[in-house]
């Protein structure tokens, strides 16, 4: 068979059609066209909506095992946390019950001792809740404004506390609001009592507004790190027994004879929203006896002269 008569065309199985470069160019142009058309005319948005609607049941069905696994693990973990919290709550309730019974016994004993010694009963301090509105506009002070004022019966120098301890006292009273100077203010001062050795002193706010310190303490004063300070109640403002601060550092200076004692307030004023305003103790105490006037002093002398 002559060579010129041979069929050199590839069989249909090996036919490739257009070249790879042509296919790449066509597909790239089509992709660019579809992206531009979708961006400008949103032509594929209905198609996406239809596909999403059709595939939504399938997605939900495929997520069922995952949701079951997650929910079961969350249930087991939540159950474990609930059991742990219940056990902690029961233990706390037991401690509170024991403490409450001891407090009741101490109150009864205190009342009997006061009656035996013919002492006046302990003062009952009236209080009212308040909410912190905003910080005072003075950036060099540590003061806040509360939403209770003279209309609600707030008096000047009223102590302000929260669940942790003393925050400060009212220094200005307006008709519907009051200004509270915090203990960490540089002009604040409060008499305190060391619960460990029952020694009295005074705590003052630092100029930096970051804490408290005990001033005018001797270098050999019996003060240790960790001592808890409460209100002494001798100033006629704060009732006794309110938590104030804890001793954080003691620096004894030999050359001056005094000790620098830093305190950390137990009631952190930052972020406080709700407080309790107490009535000053001095308003419930009997008035002091009047000093004798010169006329009263002269009256007995005249009677004696007549005799």
Gyration radius, in Å = 40 Å
Number of discrete domains: 2
Fraction of residues in helix: 25-40%
Report the CATH superfamily of the largest domain: Rod shape-determining protein MreC, domain 1
Structural class: alpha+beta
Count of DSSP strands: 12
Produce a short descriptive summary.
The protein has 307 residues and is an alpha+beta fold.
Description of the molecule:
The chain has 307 residues and is α+β, with helices and mostly antiparallel strands. Helices cover 35% and strands 24% of the residues. The chain is built from three helices and twelve strands; from the N terminus they run ααββββββββββββα. A hairpin with a 5-residue loop joins strand 6 (189-194) and strand 7. The mean pLDDT is 82.
Provide keyphrases for this structure.
single chain, 307 residues, alpha+beta, Thrombin, subunit H, 6-stranded antiparallel barrel, 3 helices, 35% helix, elongated
Produce the secondary structure layout.
Layout (H helix, E strand, L loop, with lengths): L19 H22 L3 H73 L9 E9 L7 E4 L12 E3 L4 E8 L4 E5 L6 E6 L5 E6 L6 E7 L9 E4 L11 E10 L5 E8 L8 E5 L15 H13 L1
Antiparallel strand pairs: 1-2, 1-12, 2-5, 3-4, 3-12, 4-5, 6-7, 6-9, 7-8, 8-11, 9-10, 10-11
């Amino acid at each position: 068979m002559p060579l010129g008569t041979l069929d050199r065309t590839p069989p249909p199985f090996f036919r490739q059609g257009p070249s790879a470069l042509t296919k790449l160019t066509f597909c790239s142009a089509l992709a660019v066209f579809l992206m531009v058309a979708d961006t400008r005319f949103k032509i594929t948005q209905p198609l996406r909506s239809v596909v999403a609607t059709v595939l939504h049941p399938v997605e939900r069905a495929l997520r069922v095992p995952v949701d079951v696994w997650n929910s079961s693990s969350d249930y087991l973990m939540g159950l474990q946390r609930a059991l742990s919290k219940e056990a902690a709550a029961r233990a706390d309730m037991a401690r509170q019950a024991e403490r409450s019974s001891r407090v009741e016994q101490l109150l009864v004993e205190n009342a009997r001792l006061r009656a035996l010694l013919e002492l006046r009963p302990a003062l009952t301090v009236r209080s009212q809740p308040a909410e912190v509105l905003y910080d005072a506009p003075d950036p060099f002070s540590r003061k806040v404004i509360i939403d209770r004022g003279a209309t609600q019966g707030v008096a000047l120098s009223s102590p302000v506390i929260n669940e942790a301890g003393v925050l400060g006292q009212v220094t200005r009273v307006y008709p519907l609001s009051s200004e509270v100077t915090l203990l960490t203010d540089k002009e604040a001062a409060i008499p305190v009592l060391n619960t460990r050795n029952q020694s009295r002193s005074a705590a003052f706010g630092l100029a930096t507004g970051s804490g408290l310190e005990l001033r005018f303490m001797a270098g050999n004063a019996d003060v240790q790190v960790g001592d808890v300070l409460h209100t002494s109640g001798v100033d006629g403002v704060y009732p006794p027994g309110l938590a104030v601060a804890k001793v954080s550092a003691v620096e004894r200076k030999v050359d001056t004879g005094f000790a620098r004692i830093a305190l950390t307030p137990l009631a952190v004023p930052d972020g406080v929203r709700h407080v309790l305003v107490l009535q000053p103790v001095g308003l419930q105490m009997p008035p002091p006896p009047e000093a004798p006037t010169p006329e009263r002093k002269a009256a007995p002398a005249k009677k004696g002269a007549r005799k």
